Amino acid sequence: MTISEENYLKVIYHLSLVSPKGVNTNAIAGMLETKASSVTDMLKKLAEKEVVTYKKYQGASLTNKGLIQAKKIVRRHRLWEVFLVEKLQFSWDEVHEIAEELEHIKSEKLINSLDAFLEFPDFDPHGDPIPNEKGEMKKLDKQLLSEIPLETLCKCVGVKDSSAEFLQYLDKQKITLGSQIKILEKESFDELIRVEIDKKVMVLSNKIATNLYVQ
Amino acid sequence: MTISEENYLKVIYHLSLVSPKGVNTNAIAGMLETKASSVTDMLKKLAEKEVVTYKKYQGASLTNKGLIQAKKIVRRHRLWEVFLVEKLQFSWDEVHEIAEELEHIKSEKLINSLDAFLEFPDFDPHGDPIPNEKGEMKKLDKQLLSEIPLETLCKCVGVKDSSAEFLQYLDKQKITLGSQIKILEKESFDELIRVEIDKKVMVLSNKIATNLYVQ
DNA sequence: AATTAAATTTAGACAAAACTAAAAATATTT
DNA sequence: AAATATTTTTAGTTTTGTCTAAATTTAATT
Q1: Which terminus of chain A, N or C, has less C-beta within 10 A?
Q2: What does the pLDDT look like over A150-167, one tens digit per residue?
Q3: Of A97, A101, A117, which has the smallest distance from its Cβ to B88's Cβ?
Q4: Where do you find CATH 1.10.10.10 in chain A?
Q5: Where in chain A does DSSP place strands (E)?
Q6: Are B157 and B142 in contact (CB under 8 A)?
């Protein structure tokens, strides 16, 4: 597996979670910031290697073999993210780019030792589940903050948007994984919500509320 | 800098330590397990980028810019080796290959944070010096065990040959960095030496004695 | 000094992964 | 259903890093 092939597998994996019945060529191209024609070429190669099923004009999906591979890449990515945050004191908006590189280091022993060193974390710093050695991951039935009724106490468990800008905003507001959140008031006119987060009252926009996972 | 370019710089750096007045094309090819013609191509490119000085048939050497780059790569390699041994419990014969991959991850912040996390080590698990952020490294005036006179107590501080086979041999004999060594007897006929290592008496071949650095 | 040997470079080719531009297939509108 | 728009694929190039085989330069030997 080359780095490029791994990047394709990872993107197809992520897109499959949203559209399970075949991933569009254009969607892949968008994610990888490449051209559709390049994607077509690569899909043929990946189909040849039997990690992807691909039929002209029908989009692509992972074979079982491809799924196993993709989960390994996701596992590596997320474990390195935990390492960077927990051990090297990176903030959660800084880790993605570096993990994009680290995820391609392929030693099984390395990744399993790292997993043990980090004490087998179940989730990465954005609340996304980390596949274990067998590819299994914990699923927690999270909801968007925007779907929670008034006065219900909940806990921040992840983010939907994990862009640096959003994460930096959350940092600034001192909102973090584990923060206790209660919605005090929803204003239907402008969709702002008044909330109490870790004992502090503040106002959030709908954009924030639809990108924060709580439980 | 691509991974391939970095590998060339690193190899030229290592070979320069032995032959400071220009590194042979063939020597580079040997180290990288590639062909001389490929090396010629790459040397032209590196000269273009002003990290190497290169004149046809005259061999290559690093420019100042190239030296700075090369030391960064060596720094990354050796810091990752320390990480693998100290934090992930790898043995010293297992780390080289993995560090060969990790050394190409380029974030400055990553490597400086790793350095701090490891408490700014001066030497890697084979006793080789680790350049600091400025490229400076500690030099210790080590000698080969074979050059030490009889009955002189010395301490193992590094290995010349760092092949897995040699390191595994040392492991088996319980010889490690810091081991206390005293030569009891040298047999000039077959060049075997009788030594006391950490209170235990054993016999070493000349091949071992000429590949162990002591102080 | 001439010859042979070794090292190095040139020339031309190839595979991987990307690209552009044009063609073909599928979707969407009218 | 025809026309238009969008998506996807094909065909042909480009770049990077490698290769082989032949040519050239330097080094070693007789």
Answers
A1: C
A2: 999 999 999 999 999 999
A3: A117
A4: 3-62
A5: 52-54, 60-62, 143-144, 153-159, 180-186, 193-197, 200-204, 212-214
A6: yes
B205 CB-side CA count, 13 A: 5
Return the biggest CA–CA distance within chain B: 56
For chain B, say whether A153 makes contact (Cβ under 8 Å).
no
Please indicate whether, in this complex, the C-beta atoms of B89 and A114 are within 8 angstroms of each other.
Answer: no
Give me the residue from A88, A97, A98 closest to B117, CB to CB.
A88
Question: Is the Cβ–Cβ distance between A213 and A144 less than 8 Å?
Answer: yes
In chain A, where does the domain assigned CATH 2.30.30.90 lie? Answer: 143-214
Nearest-angstrom CA–CA distance, B160 and B21: 22
Q: What is the pLDDT of residue B147?
A: 94
Task: State the fold for domain B143-214.
Answer: SH3 type barrels. (2.30.30)
Q: Are A95 and A81 in contact (CB under 8 A)?
A: yes
Q: Is A79 on the interface with B (CB under 8 A)?
A: no
The 3-state DSSP class for residue A194 equals strand
CATH 1.10.10.10 matches B3-62: yes
Interaxial angle between packed helices B64-86 and B95-102, expressed in degrees from 0 to 180 and rounded to the nearest 10 = 130
Q: Enumerate residues 6+ apart whose C-beta is below 8 A from A121.
A: A79, A82, A115, A130
CB contact at 8 A, B184 and B152: no
Q: What ranges in A49-161 are assigned the alpha helix state H?
A: 64-86, 95-102, 108-117
Residues A119-131 pLDDT 10s: 999 999 999 999 9
Tell me the pTM: 0.93
- Confidence band, pLDDT 50/70/90 cuts, at residue B36: very high
